[in-house]
Amino acid sequence: MTDPLEAAEKPPLIDLSADPFELFAAWMKDAEASEPSDPNAMTLATVSPEGRPSARIILLKGFDRDGFCFYTNLESRKGRELEATPVAALLFHWKSLRRQIRIEGTVTPVTPEEADAYFATRRRLSQIGAIASDQSRPLPDRATFEKRIHDVEEKYKGEDVPRPSNWSGFRLHPDRFEFWQERPYRLHDRAIWVSHGKTAWEVTRLYP
Question: What is the reported pTM?
Fold first, then answer.
């Protein structure tokens, strides 16, 4: 009689000797090749000063060994929560690969120069929207927003759109990575890297 555990197709186990940044980069490269859209989409979880969590999907806009960067209106809910409580968690889930990565750490603002450089790469209408939108605040009706977009378009017609002072970015400095790989029968593979200094990581495989 065939053992179903032996017959099921199983991906390789997560390599516990891997550097977590390099493993993230390898999995992101795989996602870029397999995901139908936005492989850099991630859930960002923040917490209010009262301890109330909130989460939303945003896009990762760059990463290196110093951290993971994303951008937003600083007066939005996430912007205000990150300013008051500068810790956050990220979650990447790639259904096509049956993988996910959880990342936790402290958060700091990007530099004005970094924010300017990224803002300059955005599509013009996205730049205009960043000025026209009071993100996360009440909107009386859609027509009000569309008029503001039109007004900003007229104001900067024929000119570069400047980055508004209330729009910038954050960098999450990871102190914890968890990699998860789906395996048959919910016998998944999980491994966690916990920071002990910038280059020292304690690595543990977890029960699924």
Answer: 0.91
